[in-house]
Amino acid sequence: MSLTAKDKSTVKAFWAKIASKADAVGGDALSRLLVVYPQTKTYFSHWSDITPGSAPVMKHGRTIMGGVATAVGVIDDLIGGLLTLSELHAFKLRIDPANFKLLSHCLLVEFAIMFPAEFTPEVHVSMDKFFAALGLALAEKYR
Amino acid sequence: MVDWTDFERSTILDIFSKMDYDTVGPKSLARCLVVYPWTQRYFGNFGNLYNAAAIMGNPMVAAHGKVVLHGLDRALKNMDDIRGTYAELSVLHSEKLHVDPDNFRLLADCLTIVVAAQMGAAFTADVQAAFQKFLAVVVSSLGRQYH
């Protein structure tokens, strides 16, 4: 299920529309992840405050969205373009890759809430494929 | 038997009591057929499903979307025994319709997205957790009788 030319242009166009709100989307999606899938909290035991909307959560949401923006920029070669991020996730963070799908779902829900008109089924399928490819690229160096 | 907190029970019933079935049902099934095109395998006699526009405008998809969404009514009326309530429907989907139960999860995800779009900011993380818990129980019950 690799990204077609249409998927790539759809992703870039949608990203351009939401870029100004990316930080809020990221923070809210991460807040959502921690509540809807409580097992994800196990990765943040070192934070003082993991309540939805808290400062550490919103800051980390911005970090994550920065990574997504990078991925949009290297969409023609996600695996090559995200090697450093993959090494980070593989050797330092060691987040179980199953969680990438959970965060993707929360991001899609945020898109539906914040951009109901723009997040059409066609945009949805391209973004879902993009996040799946992104997850694979992040997991590339795991083993 | 699933334990529902008061918040979960009231949230789930509230969402469905306010839901516009005639909009949400069609939109959810159409979105599922677009986002997960392999699900179209079950709808060979639905006519034109060639592209997203055709799917979204297809009257048979719309009608079936309403049927499927109303299928959740029984679970809402019997939240303390969803598994028992859906035993027969599970057998139907397995023996007669031959639907891969993974599809229930895919449709549930699309329903979540459509409801999120309808409810906007009111679809908070806690509301989402309750809604997804309900759908997870439904999905599990529908797959229970497969063998």
UniProtKB/TrEMBL annotation, chain A:
<dbReference type="GO" id="GO:0031720">
    <property type="term" value="F:haptoglobin binding"/>
</dbReference>
<comment type="similarity">
    <text>Belongs to the globin family.</text>
</comment>
<dbReference type="GO" id="GO:0005344">
    <property type="term" value="F:oxygen carrier activity"/>
</dbReference>
<keyword id="KW-0349">Heme</keyword>
<keyword id="KW-0561">Oxygen transport</keyword>
<dbReference type="GO" id="GO:0019825">
    <property type="term" value="F:oxygen binding"/>
</dbReference>
<dbReference type="InterPro" id="IPR050056">
    <property type="entry name" value="Hemoglobin_oxygen_transport"/>
</dbReference>
<keyword id="KW-0813">Transport</keyword>
<keyword id="KW-0408">Iron</keyword>
<dbReference type="InterPro" id="IPR002338">
    <property type="entry name" value="Hemoglobin_a-typ"/>
</dbReference>
<dbReference type="GO" id="GO:0004601">
    <property type="term" value="F:peroxidase activity"/>
</dbReference>
<dbReference type="InterPro" id="IPR000971">
    <property type="entry name" value="Globin"/>
</dbReference>
<keyword id="KW-0479">Metal-binding</keyword>
<dbReference type="InterPro" id="IPR009050">
    <property type="entry name" value="Globin-like_sf"/>
</dbReference>
<dbReference type="GO" id="GO:0005833">
    <property type="term" value="C:hemoglobin complex"/>
</dbReference>
<dbReference type="InterPro" id="IPR012292">
    <property type="entry name" value="Globin/Proto"/>
</dbReference>
<dbReference type="GO" id="GO:0005506">
    <property type="term" value="F:iron ion binding"/>
</dbReference>
<dbReference type="InterPro" id="IPR002339">
    <property type="entry name" value="Hemoglobin_pi"/>
</dbReference>
<dbReference type="GO" id="GO:0031838">
    <property type="term" value="C:haptoglobin-hemoglobin complex"/>
</dbReference>
<dbReference type="Pfam" id="PF00042">
    <property type="entry name" value="Globin"/>
</dbReference>
<feature type="domain" description="Globin">
    <location>
        <begin position="2"/>
        <end position="143"/>
    </location>
</feature>
<dbReference type="GO" id="GO:0072562">
    <property type="term" value="C:blood microparticle"/>
</dbReference>
Automatic annotation (TrEMBL), chain B:
<keyword id="KW-0813">Transport</keyword>
<dbReference type="InterPro" id="IPR050056">
    <property type="entry name" value="Hemoglobin_oxygen_transport"/>
</dbReference>
<dbReference type="GO" id="GO:0031838">
    <property type="term" value="C:haptoglobin-hemoglobin complex"/>
</dbReference>
<dbReference type="GO" id="GO:0005833">
    <property type="term" value="C:hemoglobin complex"/>
</dbReference>
<dbReference type="InterPro" id="IPR012292">
    <property type="entry name" value="Globin/Proto"/>
</dbReference>
<dbReference type="InterPro" id="IPR009050">
    <property type="entry name" value="Globin-like_sf"/>
</dbReference>
<dbReference type="GO" id="GO:0043177">
    <property type="term" value="F:organic acid binding"/>
</dbReference>
<dbReference type="GO" id="GO:0019825">
    <property type="term" value="F:oxygen binding"/>
</dbReference>
<keyword id="KW-0479">Metal-binding</keyword>
<dbReference type="GO" id="GO:0020037">
    <property type="term" value="F:heme binding"/>
</dbReference>
<dbReference type="InterPro" id="IPR002337">
    <property type="entry name" value="Hemoglobin_b"/>
</dbReference>
<feature type="domain" description="Globin">
    <location>
        <begin position="3"/>
        <end position="147"/>
    </location>
</feature>
<protein>
    <submittedName>
        <fullName>Hemoglobin beta embryonic-1.1</fullName>
    </submittedName>
</protein>
<comment type="similarity">
    <text>Belongs to the globin family.</text>
</comment>
<keyword id="KW-0349">Heme</keyword>
<dbReference type="Pfam" id="PF00042">
    <property type="entry name" value="Globin"/>
</dbReference>
<dbReference type="GO" id="GO:0072562">
    <property type="term" value="C:blood microparticle"/>
</dbReference>
<dbReference type="InterPro" id="IPR000971">
    <property type="entry name" value="Globin"/>
</dbReference>
<dbReference type="GO" id="GO:0031720">
    <property type="term" value="F:haptoglobin binding"/>
</dbReference>
<dbReference type="GO" id="GO:0004601">
    <property type="term" value="F:peroxidase activity"/>
</dbReference>
<keyword id="KW-0408">Iron</keyword>
<dbReference type="GO" id="GO:0042744">
    <property type="term" value="P:hydrogen peroxide catabolic process"/>
</dbReference>
